[in-house]
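Posting here for the record, re: magnesium ion.
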Amino acid sequence: MKQYKIGLLRGDGIGPEIVDSAVRVLKAVGEKFDLSFTFTPYLIGGAAIDACGQPLPEETVKGCLASDSVLLGAVGGPKWDTLPGHLRPEKALLGIRAAMGLFTNLRPAKLYPALKDDCPLRADIVANGFDIMIVRELTGGIYFGERGYREGKYGEEAYDTESYSRMEIERIVRVAFETARKRRKKLTSIDKANVLETSRLWRKIVHEIAAEYTDVEVSDMLVDNAAMQLVKNPSQFDVIVTSNMFGDILSDEASQITGSIGMLPSASLSGETRGLYEPIHGSAPDIAGQNKANPIATVLSAAMMLLYAFNESAAADAIVNAVDKVLNAGYRTADLRGGENALSTVEMTDKIIENL
Ligand code: IPM
Ligand code: MG
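Prediction output follows.
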């Protein structure tokens, strides 16, 4: 029996509930496919601040680096919103991404036929559905640039800076071309090259690397236009590659047109570790502890882990197919317009397990 050590970062808000759902699904799929998982929880975010005064304890970093793979829920909440930037729960998320070298963030956004009516776009716009893979750079750009406060021309001033090195751009762009090659061979690189120097370097490097991937059709798109195109004609996109912040924003937009942000999983990868897997949504403090959250994004993140970290594609497919079946059978959580018949987090998890 194959054995995998999974680190669990439950985090805050709905994090613990949805991670527990994914753990139940992994255990169930493990029984079917003869895989054995051990799960070790580590503190992160607000929960870690409460327990030991810092959002990302050293033990957590060590534990994650020693795990075969890591599953994360979400961090943050109103309780910790007034802390200084370096002590905020979100800082831990950036910290663990950096510590594990997770420069690639894959965020697949596709429209499930069963959720067509949950999509806020007109039926004719999504008649052909859409299936987009957002490749977001995750350890550079303005998220990690120099920031601070200073005295400026008009008094108190805050600043954040964006910088990208050739190395950082080259490696993420290569991942995107490789990803496109395995899909529909269409890559859209999104930037703001009409204004930003970082974007002009980004674009130049995309064009250089394109010469090595003549089988992939590549085009550039300005980010403001991309925001518009995503709602105007989402089916034009196959693979998108973009910077950390643009990817953050566009992936939320893409999630909303799938019906709910509660649907989108993600895989954060480096060349060396087996990565970290997390839903793209946040900790939803307003519904925390109420057994209402949609566990699907986290369950699908576990499926991505099986595929990308462990190469267990049959087990990964089993989870994806189970989610399909449950949605096709009409089961919904509250975020998916479940209304009075909405399933709870635990009930939705039960349904997925029944359909494995
Ligand atoms: C995400 C989140 C995080 C990000 C926050 C919580 C720091 O929005 O994973 O998309 O901006 O990367
Ligand atoms: Mg985000």
